[in-house]
Amino acid sequence: MDAAAIEAMFTKSDGSFLCARWGRPVAPVVFGLADESLGIFRGALRAGYAHARHPMAETDPEMGANLMLFFVRAWAELAGVPDLDRLTGVPGLPERLAREGADHYRLFRFDPESGIRACLMFLNMGGALGGAHPGGLAERVAMQSMLTFAGEIAPSAALAGVIRAAYDPVLPVATTQPAHALRLAARLAA
Question: Which of 72, 162, 163, 188 is most buried, by the most CB atoms less than 10 A from its CB?
């Protein structure tokens, strides 16, 4: 994977670039999954963050959980989440997602150093995602939670390499400089 491809992964539609990783241990919680699928998702998260050499924790001291995964069969189910508007900062989120026909939504919160402080992911299993293989979906969800990818990603060995490179402790936790893609590409080539 070259620098141009890496840069594209972190460049939003408005042309701005943001590559940020977690600045604290990840403390996940999963809502709405059957017990038989829960272990698959927990395992994918553990494996993904272990590969990136980033710690996981049982709880976050400020928030309890800082990676929250919500699985629903219809966006209307999110109306039952207490204080959803306050949690997301996005009023009317379930209605908006239903109107747009979305099958997932991801939202990041950042700490003062611009590292990821929290990630909220909402997945509608009543649509296209309902037929996804649990292992493949778990891997995709884990990877999407690890960095501020600007768009859709497909799990691959190359993408796992980019994630591991981005978690190199000598690199900044977050940057808005597109030249950062060159640093990541150099680590992949090494």
Answer: 162
Span 28-75, pLDDT tens digits: 999 999 888 899 999 999 999 999 999 999 999 999 999 999 999 999
pLDDT in tens, 12-29: 999 999 999 999 999 999
What structural domains and CATH numbers belong to the chain? 1-21+148-190 (no CATH), 22-146 (3.30.379)
Amino acid letter, residue 70? F
Q: 19-20 and 174-175 as β-strands: parallel, antiparallel, unpaired?
A: antiparallel
With tokens 């893609």, the residue in question is: 181
Alpha-carbon distance 147 to 109, whole Å? Answer: 12
Contacts of 66 (CB under 8 A, 6+ apart): 24, 26, 27, 28, 60, 117, 118, 119
pLDDT digits (tens, 9 = 90+) for 71-114: 999 999 998 899 999 999 999 999 999 999 999 999 999 999 99
The C-alpha atoms of residue 119 and residue 144 are separated, in whole angstroms, by 10
Burial (0-12, 13-18, 19+ Cβ within 10 Å), 141: buried
pTM over 0.90: yes
